[in-house]
Amino acid sequence: MGKVYLTGAGPGDIELLTIKAHRVITEADVIIYDRLANPEILKIAKNGCEFVYVGKEDGRHTLPQDEINEVIYQNALKHDVVVRLKGGDPFVFGRGGEEGAYLYERDIGFEIIPGITSAVSVPAYAGIPVTHRGVAVSFRVVTGHESPNKETSQIPWENFKTDDTIVFLMGLHNLKKITSKLMEIGKPKDYPCAVISRGTTNEQSVVVGTLENIVSEAKGVPTPALIIVGRVVELRDQLQWFNKK
Ligand code: SAH
Hints:
Elements: E1 3-8, H1 19-27, E2 30-33, E3 50-53, H2 65-78, E4 81-86, H3 96-105, E5 109-113, H4 118-125, E6 139-143, E7 165-169, H5 175-184, E8 192-197, E9 205-210, H6 214-217, E10 225-229, H7 236-239
Parallel strand pairs: 1-4, 1-5, 2-3, 2-4, 6-7
Antiparallel strand pairs: 7-10, 8-9, 8-10
The chain binds S-adenosyl-L-homocysteine.
The site of S-adenosyl-L-homocysteine has 24 residues, from helix 4, strand 8 and strand 10.
């Protein structure tokens, strides 16, 4: 039986891969990867390494999580070194916990290799610090996947009245609902926010706006993209660096 490495691939820029992730990728007998892991990373694998893609294909949605769990498990029965490569960090909206638990129940050894999460690094490449002395004393990373109008919403919207930074992942398709909800709880219409698309890559684009106009400003922006809401967005005027490279 092999060992599974639940490995973070970082946000896009392949130089943001950790040294540890780099090592296990070069040792891997099989790499199970999805849409968000930069496929350039696969080039560092050894000859003969197998690649299994479990992301979206031909308009078909990602494999259901229980099927992915089973693919990882079956590969661990056949190979010594199994790398499960995921975008960003495996435990930040990456379902790495579910994969680890599935392996635990089947007595398969695993290690977690944290990755640089998009939640912090993508704003950084846009020149937006998620905390800043005197501006934001904390930041939250929130799923944008859940529709704020749902009766069952688990998101504590009422807590978002402060100036703490909010980063929404998986939220581009709900941008209008999210910004409307934030104005509904009392945030000003001209409150700063930004949408950052394909962050840390050569295709990075940053749209800065307000809660009121970001929906029209960010129209047509490609995924993956995150939404950042907070006064820290204004610091980009001084801290923008990536596009100047
Ligand atoms: N585990 C990942 C997040 C998975 S959820 C991590 O730690 O980064 C997927 C969401 O992450 C996307 O919908 C998007 O909101 C965000 N995301 C991932 N990579 C991104 C990138 N390069 N630029 C902008 N957003 C990104």
